[in-house]
Backbone:
């Protein structure tokens, strides 16, 4: 099974995805955490978090320190690539109890390394007692065994048939969202999945309400290539706005590369003259530190955050996409 896109990931004749906000939408990702190494680099500690009303999980996490290979963040630190865990027994005691009480059913951990040095691990928790549709997928290629991207793990909410289709889908280099990200080694956004009939899973995606895709590459681990993809549903979106920022040729500031907003905003025009410098807002901080970041409130000292807040967005995440020794892009998303 091979899934493919046209050369352009954007809908024909448009510079960005334009869809109406669903005021009844609920977030597919319910919790975001950022864990960073301690000063002596012997364990991980909580740096930032977006917990919403889940105060018990926040309190348990603040009081927790994680060793290598312990809990979700420690496991991702140990294996050096993204992981998806559908059963949360791996969580430490108090965190496990709080996650279970909140109805969380899946955890995803995304480690960030600068060379051999871990800068941080972003952890996402999903789960909802009501039907929720979306996808967070980890794809990989092992060149010693096969020539395409295959599914390593994923979480799809209640989209069981779509998950089954995905497990039998293969992506040659350059095909589909995972294959394109693999080939370019850069993050990419697929605007409006329903408009791409060459997206092999498009009918299933449309039937269950998936509409937006974005993918993020990871540096190879032991010769294997890794890609993280997010497929956002209409009623349970992963993000209401997604942005990709890249450094200029002098490495002095970030400029807008591509994005999606669910409020009919042409981000390319809005951000045409916006530049983000190091340590400016959450995106600039992720660029300068090489570490992931998350914040409950989007208001800070950057134009991008002020514009997001003006659009009614209330929280933000920034993830560095690493090159050899520094971020080559920053992927940011808001809800």
Residues:
């Amino acid at each position: 099974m091979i899934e493919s896109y046209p050369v352009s990931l954007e809908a024909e004749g448009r510079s960005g995805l334009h869809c109406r906000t669903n005021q009844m939408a609920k977030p597919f990702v319910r919790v975001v955490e950022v864990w960073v190494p301690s000063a002596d680099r012997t364990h991980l500690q909580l740096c930032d978090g977006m917990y919403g009303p889940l105060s018990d999980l926040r309190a348990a996490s603040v009081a927790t320190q994680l060793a290598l290979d312990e809990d979700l963040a420690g496991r991702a630190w140990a294996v050096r690539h993204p992981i998806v865990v559908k059963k949360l027994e791996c969580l430490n005691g108090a965190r496990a109890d709080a996650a279970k009480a909140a109805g969380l059913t899946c955890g995803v951990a995304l480690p960030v390394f600068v060379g051999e040095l871990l800068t941080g691990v972003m952890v996402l928790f999903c789960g909802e007692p009501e039907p929720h549709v979306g996808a967070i997928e980890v794809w990989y290629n092992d060149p010693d065994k096969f020539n395409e991207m295959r599914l390593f793990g994923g979480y799809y909410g209640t989209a069981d048939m779509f998950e089954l289709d995905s497990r039998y889908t293969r992506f040659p280099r350059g095909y589909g969202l995972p294959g394109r990200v693999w080939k370019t080694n850069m993050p990419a956004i697929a605007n409006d999945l329903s408009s791409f009939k060459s997206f092999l899973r498009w009918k299933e995606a449309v039937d269950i309400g998936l509409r937006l895709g974005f993918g993020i590459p990871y540096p190879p681990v032991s010769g294997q290539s890794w890609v993280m993809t997010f497929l956002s549903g209409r009623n349970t979106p992963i993000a209401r706005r997604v942005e990709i920022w890249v450094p200029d040729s002098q490495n002095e500031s970030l400029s807008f590369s591509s994005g999606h907003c669910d409020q009919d905003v042409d981000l390319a025009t809005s951000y045409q003259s916006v530049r983000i410098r190091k340590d400016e807002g959450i995106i600039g901080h992720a660029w300068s530190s090489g570490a992931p970041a998350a914040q409950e409130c989007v208001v800070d000292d950057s134009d991008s955050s002020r514009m997001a807040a003006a659009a009614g967005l209330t929280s933000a995440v920034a993830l560095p996409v690493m090159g050899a020794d520094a971020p080559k892009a920053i992927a940011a998303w808001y809800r």
